Amino acid sequence: MPDLRRITVTESGDVTVVRFVDRKIVDEAQVNELAGELGRLVDIEKRRALLLNFSGVEFVSSAGLGKLIALDRKLKMAKGRLKMSDMVPEIMSVFEITKLNKVFDIRASEAEALKAF
User: Fold this and answer.
1) pTM (2 decimals)?
2) Is 68 exposed, middle or buried (0-12, 13-18, 19+ CB in 10 A)?
């Protein structure tokens, strides 16, 4: 995939593993660019099993959370699956406070998330 600036992508079997380049996902332009790159994985590359690995991410803005919700909806409409892993306690607490831990399948480690597919 050309011009990936906000994510790195690897494959583990039929699962696309996404890691974030930025430690803080805050700026509106950055969030929109990130959403575009994730959207292309689903819309153009037809990836249907995504694992978002949050290792190294220290903060996600509310706009970033909104884009993750939109990505989850998009994948579900395409009969795909989204899982998340490796969240630092601060990020996990944001997901718990917003009850998004009930929306997303969040696993402690990438290995555990991969097994869950």
Assistant:
1) 0.95
2) buried
Q: Are strands 81-85 and 59-60 parallel, antiparallel or unpaired?
A: unpaired
Question: CA 17, CA 14: separation in Å to the nearest integer?
Answer: 10
Angstrom distance (rounded) from CA 116 to CA 84:
11
Average pLDDT for consecutive 10-residue bins of the chain (117 residues)? 84 97 94 96 96 96 96 96 97 96 97 98
Check if the beta carbon of residue 80 is closer than 8 Å to that of residue 116: no
- Taken in order 106, 109, 115, 117, the sign of the CA dihedral is positive
The closest of 4, 84, 83 to 44, measured between CA atoms, is 4
**18, 7 contact by CB (below 8 A):** yes
Q: Which residue has the tokens 């292309």?
A: 40
Strand arrangement of the beta sheet that strand 81-85 belongs to: 7-12, 15-20, 49-53, 81-85, 105-107
Interacting residues of 99 by C-beta distance below 8 A, sequence separation 6+: none
Residues 38, 70: contact at Cβ < 8 Å?
A: no
